[in-house]
Amino acid sequence: MFLLAQLHMDLIATKATQNEVRKALENLPQGLDESYKEALRRIESQNHDDCQRAKRTLYWISHALRPLTVAELQSALAVMPGGTRVDHGDLVHQDIILSICAGLVVIDSESSVFRLVHFSAMKFFESIRAAIFPDAQADLASTCLTYISFETFAGGPCPTNEQLESRLRENPLFIIQRRHQSHGTSFESWC
Question: In what residue span(s) does the GPI inositol-deacylase winged helix domain sit (predicted)?
C-alpha cells in the first residue's frame, strides 16, 4: 500500500463513530509531513506513559547509528534511572511499541529490526527532532550510562568467550555500545 494511504488509514482506524470517520475523511492531512505531524498529535493525545514511551522509541530509532533489534529497543525502553538491571517485567511487548507509535514505526520483516515507516520519516524527524525531542540526547546518554553501570558489568571483562556471549544475550543494548566503543567513536555518537 502507498505510504500516504497507509498513514490515512492509520488515522481513520482511530475513529470510533461514523461521524468521526466522516470528519477525518474531510480533513485528511495533505502530504507526508502533514501526516507525520498528525501522527505526532495522536501520540501526544495518549496517556502520559504511552506518550513518553512512544517519544523515547522515536528518538532511539531516529538517533541510532544502525537499526535496533526488538530486544535492543525493548531493553533501552526498560532502563530506569538509577536502576541496577533491566527488570524483565518492564519490557514492553513489540506490538504495544508499534501501536503507541501511531504508524510511524515498523518492524522490518526480513531483519527483525525496528525502523521508521519510510526514509522520508527519518528526514522529517531529522529536521524537527531538536524541537520535538529537546531532551533526547540527555536521556540517551543517561540511559547508556545507567546501562553500563548495571551490576552485571561490575565484574569487568568476561574471562571466556562463552561468558561474553552469555552476557551479550542477556544484555542486548550492551552490544550497541560495545560495537561503537570498539570503533573509537565518542560517547555521544554511540548513545
Answer: 52-125
pTM, rounded to two decimals: 0.78
The string of pLDDT tens digits covering residues 49-82 is 999 999 999 999 998 888 999 999 999 999 988 8
**What H or E segment, with its residue span, contains residue 58?**
helix 48-63
How do the domains of the chain map onto residue ranges? Answer: 49-190
Angle between helix 172-182 and helix 136-148 axes, rounded to 10 deg = 100
Backbone CA torsion sign across 155, 160, 166, 168: positive
Angle, CA of 69, 93 and 100, to the nearest 5°: 95
Q: Rounded to 5 degrees, what angle do the CA atoms 164, 188, 55 make?
A: 95
Rg value, the chain, Cα = 18
